[in-house]
């Protein structure tokens, strides 16, 4: 683009343009990543990116990433995103005190040892997305909960090995992060204990909650929490394949209550649950309509204790 052309003007333009380009480094092709790694050391030196994103590099090699990590200055990296890069894990040099956001979704090599290093080195972390990182267990999550206390977004969802993440670690993380807005727990083995901890500690800030496939959750937590108003700003609720949630009436009432406040609650559920939600809405309407008519009739026909007009004429 235009910035690439600026590299060819003169030395001053080259220096300034290089600094701008290096702030956001995004690789969507394995060939581009390898070509960048093969650049001369003088070309890469001095690059201090704030954002480094690798997107869908299914066959990229860890050695290529390590060679880049040894040359660029990672001290300023704030956003680190490895999305669907199954063979890649962030080099330890990328875990700095400046790091605010890490995504390693779909990594087959990201494990507890890396998560512990991240927790100890990047304590200002605000966003953590480790969906489908099947090597991560309660050990790594607990370390994050102990050391990182400014989290706003977490996503621990997975389809495999859900038993490796449970209340023992997630409850600790939730207790120490009262400003969580987005929480993804799909497929994990958390129970009602975690949901209550989440509502008590983070309820005021919670906006998005994913519980798809969480078979340890029941009406003892979610329905009661919604009914008690502990999550006043919740606008996204994902409850696919959660057989323990059966009292959908309270969920419907909560959605209507949110609508009165101008908050549209998006509920993501499977077909059977969605049909039950519609049935609950229909039944609530049937019960409420006669009551509404009765209230209106009593108000219209009731005595209002106003002075009769004849009293004014006399």
UniProtKB/TrEMBL annotation:
Listed InterPro entries: F-box_LRR-repeat, Leu-rich_rpt_Cys-con_subtyp, LRR_dom_sf
GO cellular component, one term: cytoplasm
Gene3D superfamilies associated with the record: Ribonuclease Inhibitor (3.80.10.10)
Superkingdom of the organism of origin: Eukaryota
PANTHER family the UniProt entry points to: ATP SYNTHASE SUBUNIT S, MITOCHONDRIAL (PTHR13382:SF10), MITOCHONDRIAL ATP SYNTHASE COUPLING FACTOR B (PTHR13382)
Name of this protein: RNI-like protein
Taxonomic source organism: Metschnikowia bicuspidata
């Amino acid at each position: 683009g235009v910035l690439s052309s600026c590299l060819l003007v003169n030395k001053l333009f080259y220096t300034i343009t290089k600094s701008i380009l290096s702030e956001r480094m995004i690789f969507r092709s394995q060939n581009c990543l390898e070509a960048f790694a093969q650049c001369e050391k003088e070309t890469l030196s001095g690059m201090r990116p704030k954002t480094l994103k690798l997107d869908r590099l299914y066959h990229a090699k860890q050695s290529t990433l390590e060679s880049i990590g040894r040359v660029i200055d990672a001290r300023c990296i704030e956003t680190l995103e490895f999305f669907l890069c199954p063979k890649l894990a962030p080099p330890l040099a990328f875990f700095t005190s400046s790091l605010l956001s890490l995504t390693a979704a779909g990594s087959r090599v990201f494990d507890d040892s890396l998560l512990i290093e991240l927790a100890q080195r990047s304590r200002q972390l605000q966003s953590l997305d480790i969906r489908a990182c099947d090597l991560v267990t309660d050990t790594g999550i607990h370390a994050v909960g102990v050391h990182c206390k400014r989290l706003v977004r977490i996503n621990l969802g997975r389809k495999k090995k859900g038993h490796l993440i449970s209340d023992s670690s997630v409850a600790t993380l939730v207790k120490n992060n009262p400003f969580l807005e987005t929480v993804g727990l799909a497929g994990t083995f958390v129970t009602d204990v975690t949901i209550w901890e989440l509502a008590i500690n983070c309820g005021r800030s919670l906006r998005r909650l994913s519980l798809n496939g969480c078979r340890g959750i029941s009406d003892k937590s979610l329905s009661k929490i919604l009914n008690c108003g502990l999550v006043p700003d919740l606008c996204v609720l994902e409850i696919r394949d959660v057989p323990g949630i059966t009292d959908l009436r309270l969920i419907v009432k909560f959605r209507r209550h949110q609508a009165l406040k101008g908050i549209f609650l998006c509920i993501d559920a499977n077909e059977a649950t969605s049909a039950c939600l519609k049935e609950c809405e229909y039944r609530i309407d049937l019960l409420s309509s006669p009551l509404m008519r009765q209230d209106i009739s009593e108000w219209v026909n009731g005595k209002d204790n106003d002075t009769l007009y004849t009293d004014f004429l006399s």
